[in-house]
Amino acid sequence: MITPEFTLIANGTDVTSKINLDASKISFEDEAGTVADEIRLVIEGAFKKPKYEDELKLYIGTKEKGQFFCGVFKVQTSTYKKGAQNCMEITATAVDFSKSLKV
């Protein structure tokens, strides 16, 4: 049996225990080349909406094998899902691509 787990650090504060039971979806897209890595979180419940470019650090893995560091991300969008006042979707991109470093 595999037990998934994650750790989420928002602006230097571990918020894992606050959202652990309410996170209905967490995805990490590890892109190759010049495309920015991205994370998406869907969280249910009443939480403070993150601001544009808030910093997120994500670790994902399993209890059995441990977690790995996905990277540092900056929030790009945080919106309430249509028709769901207490369900928020957050999208964040890797720090290296959030500014004009690719130019």
Short characterization:
With 103 residues, the protein is mainly beta. The chain is built from two helices and seven strands, in the order E-E-H-E-E-E-E-E-H. The longest helix is centred in the N-terminal third of the chain and has 4 residues, at 16-19.
Could you explain how this protein is built, in words?
- The chain has two helices and seven strands; from the N terminus they run ββαβββββα.
- With 103 residues, it is mainly beta.
- The termini are far apart.
Fraction of helical residues: under 10%
Count up the helices: 2
What would you call the structural class?
Answer: mainly beta
Rg value? 14 Å
Order of helices and strands: EEHEEEEEH
Strand arrangement within the widest β-sheet reads 2-1-5-6-7-4-3
In the predicted model, the low-confidence regions spanning at least 5 consecutive residues are none
How would you describe the shape?
globular
Number of strands: 7
- The CA-CA distance between the termini, in Å, is 46 Å
Q: State mean pLDDT (0 to 100 scale).
A: 85
Reported for the largest beta sheet, the result is: 7 strands, antiparallel
| Beta-strand content | over 45%
Index terms:
103 residues; mainly beta; 7-stranded antiparallel beta sheet; 2 helices; 8% helix; globular
